[in-house]
Records
---
Amino acid sequence: MSPQQRRSGLGTNQEAVRRHNLGTLLRHVHGAGQISRAELTSLMGLNRSTIAALVGELETLGISERATPVGGVRQGAGRPSAGVAIAAEGPFVIAVDLGVDRAVVARIGLGGRILQRAQAPVHSDGEAWQVGASVAALIRRVVADAPAAAPLVGIGISVPGLVRRSDGLIRLAPNLEWHDVSFGGIVLAALGLDVPVQLANDADLGALAEHIRGAGVGVDDLIYVSGNVGVGAGVIAGGHRLEGAGGYAGEIGHLRFNPEGRPCHCGNRGCWETEVGAHAIAEAIHCPADKVAQLDEVLDGFAQPSRELRETGTALGHGLASIVNTFNPRTVVLGGYFRSLYRLVGAEISAGLADRALPAPLESVTLAMPGLGSDSPLLGAAEIALEPLFVDPVAALGSALVDVRGRLAG
Amino acid sequence: MSPQQRRSGLGTNQEAVRRHNLGTLLRHVHGAGQISRAELTSLMGLNRSTIAALVGELETLGISERATPVGGVRQGAGRPSAGVAIAAEGPFVIAVDLGVDRAVVARIGLGGRILQRAQAPVHSDGEAWQVGASVAALIRRVVADAPAAAPLVGIGISVPGLVRRSDGLIRLAPNLEWHDVSFGGIVLAALGLDVPVQLANDADLGALAEHIRGAGVGVDDLIYVSGNVGVGAGVIAGGHRLEGAGGYAGEIGHLRFNPEGRPCHCGNRGCWETEVGAHAIAEAIHCPADKVAQLDEVLDGFAQPSRELRETGTALGHGLASIVNTFNPRTVVLGGYFRSLYRLVGAEISAGLADRALPAPLESVTLAMPGLGSDSPLLGAAEIALEPLFVDPVAALGSALVDVRGRLAG
């Protein structure tokens, strides 16, 4: 925002700048978990009295609280700089990781702290309203111990499918067999609440969370490749989320891979997903169909890779080469069951990649495991629900709900 | 930049903000070619007197001049708003489009105006210093009529290959058989000049130019797919250039397409380029090898597509489907010889895309021809050379050269 006086009046402009700065300061607190005022002064390029005023406002809003400085964080020879910590009874969000076989729901506070979590099976042939009712029941469980004064900012939902950015409509969740499902509305109706709800693709949210507090902190060109029955990617490019025109970017499971290959559920033949997707791997290792959604656990039971798994590793590496040639990422994070696959056939994956990628993009890329384990999409869902707090904390708290436990019990 | 007073002092901060605003205003003038003060006031959210002061400074710097308002651009009932136009003897850049068979060089002013152009053949087995000498000779020709007072801001070079972003090193230009060539330095040495020089990949620059003043104006998710002997893409995602960690993003010619296919120069087999690259098409239509680099002209001579060309069109569509699934673009611009191919087999290209892309990203994508014809990479090269003027016009003019014609003649 430019500092000149707008024709709309200096007062309004100053207020907008102040709220923007308040949100930016909160984003730093959220990223660090706890931070000193001296660090905030340095990060934001504002003077000490401005920082002190903003911190005071966050305390008044109940978002942050004073922390005793740890160790020797000092400003020159002066007093130790006071710390800013996340308030124990501060705002929180509900994050939902909707999987093909189970839903994980968590109450999550600023700093990405998982305060309470619950999960339940999902039947892949279930209707959306049935799944919505299960998710609503899990939400009731995770708010059971929430402090009455803590405000619920919103709900974020990670979806194994294509989500329209403009309104969160699930256009396609192939392994749930959902088409054009307004799942956010279904969950709110089941709860009888009206709070902001955000939905996004699971791999996109995995990339976001890994970028903010996982394996990709400080990495501006990052790809999170998710093996979650289907195969997809979330892409951070130049520090920005790659979303595409409608929010559908990253459907790399449907890159052409083997035109003579197996039929894909998308109607084509030989998509990459038909070689490295969970169904293909399950078939290769004779895993029963009802265990496909727990492929990571099945793979973790292997002591040695079979020939078929080594071939799958090579195919994963070959496909990653196409992705490295296309995006030139610094880091490729292998999420979902690809984590377990990497433990078994990491050498084949790396060799397949090295064999097929162009030398220039290959030389600077690293394969990495998720820093957040299997929670990346869940924590990413929390991030999109928290986002309004970082744009304008005052407005976001204004539309937040207090005493959610009481309201849901009533 | 935040409006608060920095610890470094209000004066310095104000000067930085003023230069930033001056550059932003110039970017608007550059984009529009000619623009009224009223439009600038509205676009920049600054008041009339601030805009008037900035416009006055651009005039003093010799960058812009007063224009008589065209038609009835009026502010309310008052006087017609004075216009801002690009100065006839204002700053310019040299843009170089290095092709596999020829180099095109132009003197280009603000507003993307091509003021003078020249071209010469390039021998694909030529050494880099020979090509550099040819390019230097072309540069001497295009500055022959440059006004002595007009400053040269810099040189931008479009390269058919992988360019390292950090220093402009050409890592690989496969069809020139160049590896790790510092072509910018070679051209400057041949000229005996020291001016800023920027290099980037031709498809990346095509995307940039089409986004600024071609088929992609106002389109934030755009892919320029370039058929230029090799096949590559430039990607604009969410309004930002997709560059990747090293600057190598967009090498979609090396997407795996047909694992049983022809060997590719990259060492793999069946890359997309082996099916839709110029050599593959030339072979299919029995075009002599020495005409491959002019494939667009050869294709323009066809009245009817052969069966082979129709198959190529289908393969182009199938590959575009992978790209649409990966990036979810709003517009795909077909550059280079793909323009000529589209005229012949547009139906097959569109059908191949529709047959293989996922419905959600397919529904909002449009195939388009370049708005700038075959000049997109050339105009993109001008953009990267002009860029310092939009960051800080005062500093950019400070490092510009005047009387380039005289210096090169001396």
---
Amino acid sequence: MAFCNEHFLELQGAYLFAEVRKRAEAYKKQHPDADIISLGIGDVTQPLAPAVVEAMTKAVAEMGRMETFRGYGPEQGYMFLRKAIAEGDFKSRGVDIDPSEIFVSDGAKCDTGNMQEIFSDTAIVAVTDPVYPVYVDSNVMAGRGGKFVNGGYERIVYMPCYEECDFKASLPVHDPQIIYLCSPNNPTGTVLNRKDLTQWVRYAKQTGSVIFFDAAYEAFITEDDVPHSIYEIEGAKDVAIEFRSYSKTAGFTGVRCGYCVVPHALKLETKSGEMVSANELWDRRQCTKFNGCSYIVQRGAEAIYTEEGRKQIQATLDIYRNNARVILEGVKEAGLHAIGGTNSPYIWLSVPEGMTSWQFFDFLLDKAGIICTPGSGFGPCGEGYVRLTSFNTPELTRTAVERMKKALKEIK
Amino acid sequence: MAFCNEHFLELQGAYLFAEVRKRAEAYKKQHPDADIISLGIGDVTQPLAPAVVEAMTKAVAEMGRMETFRGYGPEQGYMFLRKAIAEGDFKSRGVDIDPSEIFVSDGAKCDTGNMQEIFSDTAIVAVTDPVYPVYVDSNVMAGRGGKFVNGGYERIVYMPCYEECDFKASLPVHDPQIIYLCSPNNPTGTVLNRKDLTQWVRYAKQTGSVIFFDAAYEAFITEDDVPHSIYEIEGAKDVAIEFRSYSKTAGFTGVRCGYCVVPHALKLETKSGEMVSANELWDRRQCTKFNGCSYIVQRGAEAIYTEEGRKQIQATLDIYRNNARVILEGVKEAGLHAIGGTNSPYIWLSVPEGMTSWQFFDFLLDKAGIICTPGSGFGPCGEGYVRLTSFNTPELTRTAVERMKKALKEIK
């Protein structure tokens, strides 16, 4: 008989966003005339930049002609894109990353989900609470979770992030081998500044752990003291893998492209004490189980690094940044407490006293026609909050905020 | 200290095609004027069909306009494509597959590499010898290989395919839980007919094993008695997962799209005897670690199923089919023995007596300027053969065959 991977059965309930979708759909069925605005799932609404459209149109045409057709590309991504990344995302910030340390993929969800494969299945994993569910679920599937007890998996180290500490995690008491950090943070919208990251790099060096640094929202950073890359911190190449995505930066959620950086300096250990290059392990993983990101998509990503492309994506990002400001101001006017939104597309909103995250979700849906994401879906410490996103259109964002203010007045 | 997944270190040597590329590049460096023709890696050369180009150009334009922009798509693929697949690849052959059983991805290499994740890590894996290396390597990485001893991994069941048995594997003596079958076969170019597949489905039912049926080369089938899908065999939905690819069918090697079928009827067992839906497990895997195939690419794939698209890809396939015929006839004229090429883009060529696969590789490169793939790279039973592909242009294929004939005359 063929046995299944029973670690899959340890997974708790449905994927958060699937549950949000299900509840919203049930509501729409009962209220077919309801005019619903989503500030829930972190999906973009603005079209691709003209430079990206032009580059991809050209690439499609190339693929239709014998002389310019391209078959299999390198599993690691085309050198034209890896070089543009090294130059545009790192050298421009004084960070020296070699193109051979960059692996282009079809998105950061895949990379953050798959990277754990090159680590021992007994590795102890640490995550913040609240946290992006993929970090946890991909490790549970690989057997690093264990049973779900008291709101968490018994083998995962949860690092609580309390409002009193600016939603920043303290260093874990028991040394983990893999530490997931996300800055700007999903879901809280907070950031780790230079001092915070320096502390984490020192901790990783001292304990021999590896940091998975998710910088998917890097493009939203506006403050000077916030590193865009963990490699801006000295010594980080010895201890950190960084994940980047074009999803929010350039509206690529449906196009699918991202990359990760696995520095040559990063070594993992064998049980017998030999040192193995993480870059070589990941290269082998990708060459065996991945066949490269679409050529057409990679040409689109390359266009983001042109002067024209850069300007165009900044114009779009400004729309979302402004939405974030509108939401933040609106909920504060309504008397609620909120953080995030400054270096992030996410606003982390305290729900009115006496309500749970899901109760406030239902309230917003029913009284204001707004979909949010309940904070408790990101972990026990997310209880009492909801996440709002700034990715809708300016018009609908403004309408949503007005509706929210009105609905909240009624419960005061 | 962070420990690595030591199963990666059990992997033998470099990936076959990387080794071929390395040797070819070394030769070119020494002979900069050499005019090399590749019949090695299975990569296509003909451009995309006009219907595909048109559909993707339109999709790119859609993504550039607010009203038609699309963000995250379903992790399982868009329903427009899943329906086109159910209709065009299955219903048209009398097979009833529900769209919810179809999962669209960025290629069959990813799917065949990742599918093992939903199975127990103690599952015994059976592969044919010779075999496409990804099946073996992805299982070794997951810990199902064990040590490499006497030309094979100790925990993998190898099913030798001898010329005397038409390169068809016998049923394994020890019952495996996962059986990889590829028809039309890579690398031997042979096929499993209705009788063969019926036998495998019966065996899987009886022993409770699951068949991974790789039908990536299905479009090359010309003979009537050869099933295009394993689901043409009664009862196969209870025991088989099927993998399909647009890479060779429609020149998508650089575009990246494929799909797999995980029937609702297929159940895996837990150690305590419960039955779990393989479809639900794979769905959970994809929702957690994959974010859907690019919208643009899926529109391109959809166009393959239009009347126009179908005709266009058949015209391209005819070019490759004709190349296969030219190679097959040529090597036979040169006095060599070869099979495949009829239902497959691959020709499996016996090397001249007294030579090994790699010696003949060097001979063809040096004396005829031709790159092939040494059969021994596909497994011990591949020794004494090389694989030739029909994916080059008609002109270069003819030139290559003439050169081969000339070179072989000299050693007679």
